[in-house]
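Before any further analysis, we paired sequence with structure tokens, yielding the entry below:
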Amino acid sequence: MDSLLATLFSVLIAEIGDRPQILAAALALRFGNDRMVISALALATAINCAISAAAGSVIDDWISEDPLRLFNGLAYLSAGVAMLWWRRPVDLLAGWKIAPFLTVFLGLFILQFGDKAQFIIGANAAMTPYPIFTALGGWLGIMAAVVPAIILKEKLAQMLPLPTIRKVGGIVLLLWGVFQALRAWRIL
């Protein structure tokens, strides 16, 4: 249960104001079907979270505890840096001429693949004997961050100070990463 909650909150923080949120909101505006966008998001996210947790579970079998903790710290450090760093604009997939569900599913699946949330899920799954809870926590965190953007669209950016949230979230993730790295080196 600890891995579920830790992953849920860290992924939620990492996804606020991030590219999946922007793309999902833009596609909801484009297609005018929030339920379809949410369904495609749910499926793409479930597959990505399962891949991440499975990869983390495999890593757990190969590495001892201190290197795993260092790996976990590096995942959080990189997520924090990514939140504070400039990011590329989101491709809104205007040139994609496939079915709306496939556009949303593939667009979000590709965008999330290799994203910071995937590394957090994998790193947390490597540190628990129950990677399914980590996958579920990651899925819930991404859904909790992105579904309001689909429903509220541009109103979300007006309601929340997204740049400030990203800065504070980035600092929190950086500090957690440093803490984990120091524990791995047995400094703390």
Notes: The chain is about 80% helix and 0% strand. The chain has a mean pLDDT of 93.
